[in-house]
Amino acid sequence: MSIKVLYFASLRETLGYSHETLTLRPTIATLGDLRSHLARRGGVWEALSEGRNVRAAINQEMVGPDVAVNDRDEIAFFPPVTGG
Amino acid sequence: MNCVSVQEADFDPGTETEALTVGRTDVGAVATFVGLVRADKLGGESGGASGEISAMTLEHYPGMTEKSLEAIVAEANTRWQLLGTRVIHRFGRLLPGERIVFVGVASSHRSDAFAACEFIMDYLKTRAPFWKKEDTPEGGRWVDAREADDSAAERWKT
Predict the structure, then answer these.
(1) Do B128 and A84 touch (CB under 8 A)?
(2) What ipTM describes this predicted complex?
(3) I need a labelling partner for B119 at 20 to 30 A (CA). Which of B49, B92, B110, B111 fits?
């Protein structure tokens, strides 16, 4: 399974990445699984650890951690929004 | 007509308001909201450094931003009898006093126009993927999300 992951705002700056393409093992089924997988990279990636205030979207729709991740999805992680 | 724009350029609130009613006689009420960059004290509500914010940069998630604003407008149309909506949100570098956001709602009666205008702003604040970064003498500082914005959006759920 191949997905694109985007990072925005303070999270993008902390991680030093705006996007990456990942090939995932089938054990990563949900958005929550993906987030834990990324946080386990350690160091700056702990910004994605459980308990940190991070929001996420799949294919440009804000969703919760239990939503399934599918091949070719566009996933985004970002801090709570501050527009308006 | 519903129309959403995400742009760097400024907008003219008068022109946008007028466009909501041009050529029609069924509109009895237009409610508009214009959001501006405030020259807040540095450090926001928590205080700290002295001086004022000299500029602000708005980042957004191209594609999702437009989709989320369209979804918010669609939701407003299911809740109230609306005859037209216009939402404009700017991104990029903005100075204090500059316009950031415009929401205009046309309806037959004022109650629907007022309510929908406030609803769109409250939902936009918590759902549209924009992030503000303030310019300070020490460099950029990301603005923290406010809990008051979450509760403002929550109250529409009842």
Answers:
(1) yes
(2) 0.95
(3) B92
